[in-house]
């Protein structure tokens, strides 16, 4: 048995080395060093079924060191995920292939998360473990456990250095996520050389301080030791675990083993041949896998079917005995459930009084919670300010896994990565929240949300110079343009309660697009004519009586009411203008050309954009003949109403800019 294990691990090494060599691009170090770890985990300890890669109670595996993607692809080929063929392996890193340079969720069957930026996979794995713990608390019965799986994540020194990992591990330890198992590929090599030049901390002590159980394996090719550590980690149900495995980067290649040059460049043709000779490979032919390895893997794949078959039988009994829980299970996994809010008048109805959109958002969140039972989220220590608490739902904690309010602490980047993990796991509808200016901390993670088509909701409050006295460090200026620049990312900045309802509706019904809700601290008036039309991204709020308006004022958020007031001033002077509310540029761009022309007719070239943030991005709507009333620099510390006047956000100034065109 030991011999076929070694041979199969070597098949992973050979396939990885050959694919990288053919592509003349890639990272052989991790696949060669971790092949034995991966085989032992996938073949002997992980609960998964390649014949049904998406079954609900499978263990999750995240390769946080996504540069080592050939490790995954070799596993997928040998284990039969998505029938990934040897031709797919040969097309590694080629345009349109199923084997891109870094693993891409939704593109290659078996990839649980898009990884590459180091540390991100660690955060997402924590989110997956939190989802498992919550769903287990909601659905499991003493006589029947239908949610009972582990989350494994593999990463190296780089992942351990990234600050996101520290944030995520600190929270995981606090929560006692006993089904999270981190496998640390400790080879003491980074791109610049030995890690001692920049990384000498005692990782074991650090992880212990976070509240992790720590297990060690001194030889990354010792299957028995790896297996024993995995089982010991699984048995420690009170704490998350880290298994520190001492490996050699580029293992098996005499000229590269243990060297930084093994990390991110092909081994070279001669070195690939030397690798094969050194490990006793029976052929020098590229991409050769012995038949006995394939035969062995057929036996493994057949064995891996049993846990799912047992789960299906158990789930059928569960549904028969607990029909009310079966109904709830279906609701938790119904991605269309929130769509019924569209026809619920109470969802769109609000008091006619000035309110901050952050307050309205909090009210809406609790309305949604009554209709959609699997809401699950929270804030980076700002729930009282973000208004993101679900009333009466309890706090998710070590003691109460059924609680629906998450407390991320002051950890914005890890919070967003955890949110991605929650979304990828499935079964919960996640949201995360912080002040808008701190979206800077979350940008790399939001980008991954977009890439993965993970419909995570970002609640971002205190959206402009309206923050006031806290001053420029807390007043966002350029962040709206930053988020709007991302493909597949909807940024809503609503003007009042009904537009906020539209923004939330769009967020919780989105299937493949993350959404940012950018909300005010200060009170805003309720406007006539707002509502479901905001779901088109932009619409005519107040129109000119002329067939062709004299000008168009386009505004978002707190500046829409300002545009309405400016229109009144202009009308008194004989100028008849149209006011367009544009809560979401991204959604507006998805509309038909005919609709966009009906809102912003090309014949009207006198256009003014009004937004208390950077004007970057408004050029496409105001053109060369237009103008903007936006922020040209950073804000200041002072009462919000004084700041709006100081920076020109008054009806009179907007009217003057329109007249100046």
Automatic annotation (TrEMBL):
Keyword hit for Oxidoreductase: no
Q: Sorted alphabetically, which Pfam families does this protein's record hold?
A: Transket_pyr, Transketolase_C_1, Transketolase_N
Q: Which reaction does it catalyse?
A: D-sedoheptulose 7-phosphate + D-glyceraldehyde 3-phosphate = aldehydo-D-ribose 5-phosphate + D-xylulose 5-phosphate
Look up keyword Calcium and say if it applies: yes
Q: What is its EC number?
A: 2.2.1.1
UniProt-listed SMART domains: Transket_pyr
Keyword tags = Calcium, Magnesium, Metal-binding, Thiamine pyrophosphate, Transferase
Q: Which PROSITE patterns match?
A: TRANSKETOLASE_1, TRANSKETOLASE_2
Cofactors = thiamine diphosphate; Mg(2+); Ca(2+); Mn(2+)
Entry's cofactor comment: Binds 1 thiamine pyrophosphate per subunit.
Domain named Transketolase-like pyrimidine-binding: residues: 355-526
Highest taxon, organism lineage? Bacteria
Function description:
Catalyzes the transfer of a two-carbon ketol group from a ketose donor to an aldose acceptor, via a covalent intermediate with the cofactor thiamine pyrophosphate.
Quaternary structure, per UniProt, is: Homodimer.
Q: Which family does it belong to?
A: Belongs to the transketolase family.
**Name of this chain's protein:** Transketolase
What species is given as this protein's source?
Enterocloster alcoholdehydrogenati
Gene that encodes the chain: tkt
């Amino acid at each position: 048995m030991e011999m076929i294990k070694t041979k199969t691990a070597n098949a992973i090494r050979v396939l990885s080395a050959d694919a990288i060599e053919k592509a003349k691009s890639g990272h052989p170090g991790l696949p060669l060093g971790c092949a034995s770890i991966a085989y032992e985990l996938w073949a002997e300890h992980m609960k998964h079924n390649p014949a049904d890669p998406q079954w609900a109670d499978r263990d999750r595996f995240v390769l946080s060191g996504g540069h080592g993607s050939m490790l995954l692809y070799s596993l997928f080929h040998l284990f039969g995920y998505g029938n990934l063929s040897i031709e797919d392996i040969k097309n590694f890193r080629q345009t349109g292939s199923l084997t891109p340079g870094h693993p891409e969720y939704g593109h290659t069957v078996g990839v649980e998360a898009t990884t590459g930026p180091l540390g991100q996979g660690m955060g997402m794995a924590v989110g997956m473990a939190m989802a498992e713990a919550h769903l287990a608390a909601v659905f499991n019965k003493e006589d029947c456990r239908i949610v009972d799986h582990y989350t494994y994540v593999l990463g190296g020194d780089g992942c351990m250095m990234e600050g996101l990992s520290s944030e995520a591990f600190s929270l995981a330890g606090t929560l006692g996520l006993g089904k999270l198992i981190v496998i640390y590929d400790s080879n003491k090599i980074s791109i610049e050389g030995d890690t001692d030049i920049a990384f000498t901390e005692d990782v074991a002590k650090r992880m212990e301080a976070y509240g992790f159980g720590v297990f060690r394996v001194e030889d990354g090719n010792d299957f028995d030791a790896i297996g024993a550590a995995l089982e010991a980690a699984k048995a420690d149900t009170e704490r998350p675990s880290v298994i520190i495995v001492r490996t050699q980067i580029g293992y098996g290649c005499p000229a590269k083993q243990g060297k930084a040059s093994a990390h991110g460049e092909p081994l070279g043709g001669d070195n690939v041949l030397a690798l094969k000779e050194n490990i006793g490979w029976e052929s020098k032919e590229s991409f050769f896998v012995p038949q006995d390895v394939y035969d062995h893997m057929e036996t493994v794949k057949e064995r891996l079917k049993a846990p799912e078959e047992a789960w299906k039988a158990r789930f059928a009994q569960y549904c028969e005995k607990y029909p009310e829980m079966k109904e709830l299970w279906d609701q938790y996994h119904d991605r269309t459930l929130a769509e019924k809010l569209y026809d619920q008048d109470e969802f769109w109805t609000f008091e006619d009084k000035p309110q901050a959109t952050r307050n309205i958002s909090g009210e809406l969140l609790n309305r949604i919670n009554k209709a959609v039972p699997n809401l699950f989220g929270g804030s980076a220590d700002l729930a009282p300010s973000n208004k993101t608490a679900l009333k009466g739902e309890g706090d998710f904690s070590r003691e109460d896994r059924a609680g629906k309010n998450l407390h991320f602490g002051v950890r914005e980047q890890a919070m967003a990565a955890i949110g991605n993990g929650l979304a990828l796991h499935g079964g919960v509808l996640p949201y995360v929240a912080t002040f808008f200016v701190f979206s800077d901390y979350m940008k790399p993670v939001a980008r991954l949300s977009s890439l993965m088509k993970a419909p995570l909701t970002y609640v971002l409050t205190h959206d402009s110079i309206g923050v006031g006295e806290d001053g420029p460090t807390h007043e966002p200026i350029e962040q709206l343009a930053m988020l709007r620049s991302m493909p597949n990312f909807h940024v809503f900045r609503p003007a009042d309660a009904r537009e906020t309802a539209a923004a939330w509706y769009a967020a919780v019904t989105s299937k493949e697009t993350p959404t940012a809700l950018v909300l005010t601290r200060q009170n805003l008036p309720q406007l006539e004519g707002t509502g479901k039309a905001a779901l088109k991204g932009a619409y005519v709020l107040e129109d000119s009586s002329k067939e062709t308006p004299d000008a168009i004022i386009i505004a978002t958020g707190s500046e829409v009411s300002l545009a309405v007031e400016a229109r009144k001033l202009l009308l008194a002077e004989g100028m008849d203008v149209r006011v367009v509310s544009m809560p979401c540029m991204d959604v507006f761009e998805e509309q038909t050309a005919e609709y966009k022309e009906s809102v912003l007719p090309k014949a009207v070239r006198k256009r003014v954009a009004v937004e208390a943030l950077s004007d970057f991005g408004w050029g496409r709507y105001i053109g060369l003949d237009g103008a903007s009333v936006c922020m040209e620099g950073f804000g200041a510390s002072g009462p919000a109403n004084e700041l709006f006047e100081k920076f020109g956000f008054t009806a009179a100034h907007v009217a003057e800019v329109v007249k100046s065109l």
